[in-house]
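Case study B.
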Amino acid sequence: MSDVARAAGVHQATASRALNPSTSDLISTATVRRVQAAAEELGYTPNTAARSLRTNQSYTVGVLLPDLTNPLFPPIVRGIEEVLTEQGYTALLANTDNDEKREAAQFAALLGRQVDGFILATGLRDHPLVERAQAEGRQLVLVNRGTDVPRFPVVSGDDASGIGAAVDHLVALGHRKLAHLAGPHRMSTGVIRLRGFRSAVGRHGLAAADTTVAECSGYTVAAGEAAMRAVLDSAPEVTAVLAGNDLIAVGALHVLREHGLSCPEDVSLIGFNDMRFVDELSPPLTTVRVPHAELGREAARLLLRRLDEPELVTSVVLPTELVVRESTAPPRVG
Amino acid sequence: MSDVARAAGVHQATASRALNPSTSDLISTATVRRVQAAAEELGYTPNTAARSLRTNQSYTVGVLLPDLTNPLFPPIVRGIEEVLTEQGYTALLANTDNDEKREAAQFAALLGRQVDGFILATGLRDHPLVERAQAEGRQLVLVNRGTDVPRFPVVSGDDASGIGAAVDHLVALGHRKLAHLAGPHRMSTGVIRLRGFRSAVGRHGLAAADTTVAECSGYTVAAGEAAMRAVLDSAPEVTAVLAGNDLIAVGALHVLREHGLSCPEDVSLIGFNDMRFVDELSPPLTTVRVPHAELGREAARLLLRRLDEPELVTSVVLPTELVVRESTAPPRVG
DNA sequence: AAGCTCTATGCAATCGATTGCATTCCCACT
DNA sequence: AGTGGGAATGCAATCGATTGCATAGAGCTT
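Model:
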């Protein structure tokens, strides 16, 4: 602000340099102090628009996610927002509802706002946006759900080992007939967790006939209900169910109850994500905890780092952890 | 963009006017079409920074809330975001953790980003920010939690009548000894709901001795536990509990269970908000539904309207609704 | 046909900060 | 004392869109 410069008795350019930490070493410390004092005095706040216009940077990142209302996302967004504001950035939020059109529109809107980068938390397996971001010269990191394209940085939980731990737990309890209510195959997490399930049961030497897999049409309670029904129909002998996520597990619980089966006595059940309040269900749900807030934080950190070193491609995998509660127990004898 | 102007064979100013709906009637329709075609062709996206710089508007609003992780807020934010993007605006999110310092810092950051207005979802009863926003000439609307100052537009649910319906329900079931686990008095919802409770029990002619009130230190499960314990100590005769919100109700449920009391047989329990998943508790919680997404939408609409007519002060009260599930039943006879 | 009006468009200043280059001034070195 | 070098600061262009004012035509009136 030129007022500040005038008040401090210097040229506007000097004021600008004095106020900017990365250029303030060009200016004598005495002047810097004078300028800062004047800025303070006048209650100066820099005009971000002007800065963006000149520097072509907005200190803003776009966060695209399917639906904030899905309990999975708030902690992620929270984590993102935390490290972003710490660094003087802010997050622009956009919900896509997993709708390609909305997604493209939101993406364009964010582009118009000159976001410096994107964090994508949407789940489709291969993603046109990823390419477009690159074409537009914008950085992008994926969180929680990856693409199959390995050229892009992804921050995710170690789903495979989480599923592995869950299967280990069930097998250790004595279960042999397992079912997996898989997430949709069009989402990366769906296939990754399924793969994890397959490899884990293989490790325990379970036969293919011992395991049933039903694909859910989405990560929703209703889809979980449908899948659980399908499993009960086709493989009534299963004693343990591993759900693709907690929402699916809730659906499964409904159907078990509806069929007069009790959990964990008749059927053990494990969820995924450790969503808020799954410990309040009855029975409290055994599930795989994913450190969502930390996922968000890492994603933001990674994006910020890439803003400096664009070529850097790193992916971060955060450990997951099995949280044993009361929805798992040894199978009934006999 | 001057490229567009060149491509359409017109002056940049003409292009600008043609592309802007509010000025495009100054330009012949033929030219408008030509310019739009050129813009389309070149994939032109306006530079928001330049526009903001010139117009001193950012088409951006700041949303301040305590903690996105609180299940209350995602639907509100979702609603806000919905109508904002519809109108070409976007939301900047900031979490304050109910900490005055963080809140002030976030507010300043948002100001620096030239937000056109603020939506405040933070709960403290009187709020320095409200004044400051006005001083800075920024519009502001409060959502869900009001101030005592009536000069500011507030969008909220009709808490009093929700509480009233809850009390009616309990009394109709035959309950006479009621307790209210009130939200903190420093939050407006805390006092409003308490007031609602008082007036409702008065309406039913219940004596002061019939009702117990315990103030919770916050809208949290832990605070609910503490308050419920206090009530069981001081007034073990209560047969029905009205919680200040669902989180408090969850805490109450814990303590009831811990004391070997069953819900609803021994004690009926009603929550507030109809948070996601309270229907999955056992028992599924009877609660007062507040239309949070609609609250958010209304808040955004109201803010947008005030951006046009700054003097307009309207507050919106949305109806609430009692959702009866299985945590309420007639009191035990005797 | 001259003059007037009105519409469509061009011109150029402007918003506020950043930054390459030029300039000034001081000091040290020989 | 003169010169070279560096540190500190000033100068002015620049980012891209908006907008008040000026201007060029076209059409109408008398």
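Chain A has a mean pLDDT of 91. The remaining cases will be described in the next quarterly update.
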